[in-house]
Amino acid sequence: MSKKLIGNKVILTPVTEKDLDFICMVESDKSLWIYEEQVKEDHAAITKLYRNRMSEDVHSYDFIISQKDDVNNTPIGIGNLWGYSEYRKSWEIGYAILPDYQAQGYGFESASLLLKYAFEKLKAHKVVGMCNINNDISSILMQKLGMTREAVFREELFWKGQWTDQCFYSILEKEY
User: Which of 14, 69, 72, 142 is most buried (CB neighbours < 10 A)?
Assistant: First the structure.
Protein backbone atom coordinates (compact mmCIF):
# COMPACT_ATOMS: atom_id res chain seq x y z
CA MET A 1 0.00 0.00 0.00
CA SER A 2 1.28 3.44 -0.86
CA LYS A 3 1.41 6.32 1.57
CA LYS A 4 1.00 10.07 1.30
CA LEU A 5 3.50 11.87 -0.88
CA ILE A 6 4.21 15.34 0.47
CA GLY A 7 5.76 18.18 -1.50
CA ASN A 8 6.14 21.91 -0.95
CA LYS A 9 2.77 22.80 -2.49
CA VAL A 10 0.85 19.51 -2.81
CA ILE A 11 -0.01 16.33 -1.00
CA LEU A 12 -0.77 13.14 -2.92
CA THR A 13 -3.00 10.81 -0.93
CA PRO A 14 -3.79 7.24 -2.00
CA VAL A 15 -7.28 6.92 -3.47
CA THR A 16 -9.90 5.48 -1.11
CA GLU A 17 -13.58 4.64 -1.42
CA LYS A 18 -14.53 8.18 -0.36
CA ASP A 19 -12.67 9.59 -3.39
CA LEU A 20 -14.63 7.67 -6.02
CA ASP A 21 -17.14 10.45 -6.76
CA PHE A 22 -14.28 12.86 -7.41
CA ILE A 23 -12.46 10.26 -9.52
CA CYS A 24 -15.59 9.69 -11.61
CA MET A 25 -16.01 13.44 -12.08
CA VAL A 26 -12.38 13.84 -13.23
CA GLU A 27 -12.26 10.74 -15.42
CA SER A 28 -15.49 11.67 -17.23
CA ASP A 29 -14.79 15.40 -17.64
CA LYS A 30 -14.19 15.88 -21.37
CA SER A 31 -12.66 19.32 -20.78
CA LEU A 32 -9.79 17.67 -18.85
CA TRP A 33 -9.10 15.06 -21.51
CA ILE A 34 -9.33 17.11 -24.71
CA TYR A 35 -6.31 15.34 -26.19
CA GLU A 36 -7.56 11.81 -25.55
CA GLU A 37 -9.21 9.55 -28.11
CA GLN A 38 -12.13 8.87 -25.83
CA VAL A 39 -13.26 9.80 -22.36
CA LYS A 40 -14.79 7.32 -19.95
CA GLU A 41 -18.38 8.34 -19.26
CA ASP A 42 -19.72 5.31 -17.40
CA HIS A 43 -19.35 6.12 -13.70
CA ALA A 44 -20.12 2.53 -12.70
CA ALA A 45 -17.27 1.27 -14.90
CA ILE A 46 -14.88 3.93 -13.54
CA THR A 47 -15.84 3.04 -9.97
CA LYS A 48 -15.35 -0.67 -10.66
CA LEU A 49 -11.93 -0.04 -12.22
CA TYR A 50 -10.68 1.99 -9.26
CA ARG A 51 -12.18 -0.39 -6.69
CA ASN A 52 -10.34 -3.26 -8.40
CA ARG A 53 -7.12 -1.28 -8.37
CA MET A 54 -7.59 -0.49 -4.67
CA SER A 55 -8.40 -4.06 -3.64
CA GLU A 56 -6.26 -6.29 -5.82
CA ASP A 57 -2.54 -6.75 -5.97
CA VAL A 58 -2.26 -4.89 -9.25
CA HIS A 59 0.60 -2.77 -10.37
CA SER A 60 -1.00 0.64 -10.12
CA TYR A 61 -0.90 3.47 -7.63
CA ASP A 62 -3.60 6.12 -7.72
CA PHE A 63 -3.48 9.39 -5.79
CA ILE A 64 -5.69 12.37 -5.07
CA ILE A 65 -3.82 15.65 -5.35
CA SER A 66 -4.61 18.46 -2.91
CA GLN A 67 -2.89 21.67 -1.89
CA LYS A 68 -0.61 21.25 1.09
CA ASP A 69 -1.95 24.32 2.87
CA ASP A 70 -5.64 23.41 2.40
CA VAL A 71 -6.97 22.21 5.75
CA ASN A 72 -10.02 20.73 3.97
CA ASN A 73 -7.85 18.63 1.61
CA THR A 74 -9.96 19.72 -1.36
CA PRO A 75 -9.01 17.56 -4.35
CA ILE A 76 -7.44 19.48 -7.24
CA GLY A 77 -6.41 16.54 -9.41
CA ILE A 78 -5.30 12.94 -9.73
CA GLY A 79 -1.95 11.27 -10.24
CA ASN A 80 -1.30 7.70 -11.32
CA LEU A 81 1.49 5.19 -11.78
CA TRP A 82 0.75 2.00 -13.71
CA GLY A 83 2.96 -0.99 -14.29
CA TYR A 84 4.14 -0.64 -17.88
CA SER A 85 6.42 -3.68 -17.99
CA GLU A 86 6.87 -5.57 -14.75
CA TYR A 87 9.76 -7.64 -16.07
CA ARG A 88 11.60 -4.52 -17.21
CA LYS A 89 10.75 -2.55 -14.03
CA SER A 90 9.02 0.14 -16.10
CA TRP A 91 6.13 2.32 -14.95
CA GLU A 92 3.84 4.75 -16.73
CA ILE A 93 2.96 8.13 -15.23
CA GLY A 94 -0.34 9.98 -15.61
CA TYR A 95 -1.83 13.11 -14.10
CA ALA A 96 -4.71 15.57 -14.39
CA ILE A 97 -5.13 18.91 -12.62
CA LEU A 98 -8.47 20.73 -12.47
CA PRO A 99 -8.54 23.89 -14.66
CA ASP A 100 -8.66 26.36 -11.73
CA TYR A 101 -5.34 24.98 -10.48
CA GLN A 102 -3.45 24.59 -13.76
CA ALA A 103 -0.34 26.63 -14.63
CA GLN A 104 0.52 27.09 -10.92
CA GLY A 105 3.14 24.36 -10.54
CA TYR A 106 0.82 21.74 -9.03
CA GLY A 107 1.09 19.39 -12.01
CA PHE A 108 4.88 19.60 -12.11
CA GLU A 109 5.29 19.02 -8.38
CA SER A 110 2.76 16.17 -8.40
CA ALA A 111 4.51 14.47 -11.32
CA SER A 112 7.87 15.01 -9.59
CA LEU A 113 6.54 13.25 -6.47
CA LEU A 114 5.25 10.38 -8.62
CA LEU A 115 8.68 9.99 -10.24
CA LYS A 116 10.36 10.03 -6.84
CA TYR A 117 7.96 7.34 -5.62
CA ALA A 118 8.54 5.24 -8.73
CA PHE A 119 12.33 5.35 -8.49
CA GLU A 120 12.84 5.37 -4.73
CA LYS A 121 9.99 3.15 -3.49
CA LEU A 122 9.06 0.99 -6.46
CA LYS A 123 12.69 0.66 -7.61
CA ALA A 124 11.75 1.49 -11.18
CA HIS A 125 14.36 1.25 -13.90
CA LYS A 126 12.32 3.46 -16.25
CA VAL A 127 9.24 5.66 -16.14
CA VAL A 128 7.37 6.48 -19.34
CA GLY A 129 4.70 8.98 -20.26
CA MET A 130 2.70 9.45 -23.42
CA CYS A 131 0.69 12.29 -24.87
CA ASN A 132 -1.03 13.45 -28.02
CA ILE A 133 1.49 15.37 -30.16
CA ASN A 134 -0.81 18.42 -29.92
CA ASN A 135 -0.67 18.44 -26.11
CA ASP A 136 2.16 20.95 -25.77
CA ILE A 137 1.60 21.50 -22.04
CA SER A 138 2.04 17.81 -21.21
CA SER A 139 5.07 17.56 -23.51
CA ILE A 140 6.70 20.57 -21.85
CA LEU A 141 5.94 19.21 -18.38
CA MET A 142 7.53 15.84 -19.14
CA GLN A 143 10.61 17.53 -20.59
CA LYS A 144 10.83 19.79 -17.53
CA LEU A 145 10.78 16.62 -15.40
CA GLY A 146 13.90 15.45 -17.25
CA MET A 147 12.09 13.00 -19.48
CA THR A 148 13.34 12.46 -23.02
CA ARG A 149 11.14 12.19 -26.08
CA GLU A 150 12.08 8.74 -27.30
CA ALA A 151 9.65 8.35 -30.13
CA VAL A 152 6.69 9.64 -32.01
CA PHE A 153 4.17 6.92 -32.76
CA ARG A 154 2.75 7.95 -36.09
CA GLU A 155 -1.02 8.12 -36.36
CA GLU A 156 -1.38 6.28 -33.05
CA LEU A 157 -4.52 8.08 -31.86
CA PHE A 158 -7.84 8.58 -33.60
CA TRP A 159 -8.53 12.08 -32.32
CA LYS A 160 -11.14 14.57 -33.50
CA GLY A 161 -12.02 12.40 -36.48
CA GLN A 162 -8.49 11.93 -37.79
CA TRP A 163 -5.37 9.94 -37.05
CA THR A 164 -2.76 11.85 -35.06
CA ASP A 165 0.65 11.14 -33.60
CA GLN A 166 1.47 10.28 -30.00
CA CYS A 167 4.71 11.23 -28.25
CA PHE A 168 6.50 8.72 -26.02
CA TYR A 169 8.70 10.09 -23.22
CA SER A 170 10.86 8.34 -20.66
CA ILE A 171 13.34 8.84 -17.88
CA LEU A 172 15.77 6.21 -16.65
CA GLU A 173 16.74 5.57 -13.05
CA LYS A 174 20.30 6.76 -13.75
CA GLU A 175 18.92 10.02 -15.21
CA TYR A 176 16.67 10.64 -12.24
Answer: 142
Non-local (6+) Cβ contacts of 50 within 8 A are 15, 20, 23, 62
Whether residue 134 lies inside any domain: the answer is no
Note the pLDDT tens digit of each residue in 7-21: 999 999 999 999 999
Q: Is residue 62 part of a domain?
A: yes
Distance separating alpha carbons of residues 173 and 121, to the nearest angstrom: 12
**pLDDT reported for residue 34:** 95
Q: The pTM is what?
A: 0.93
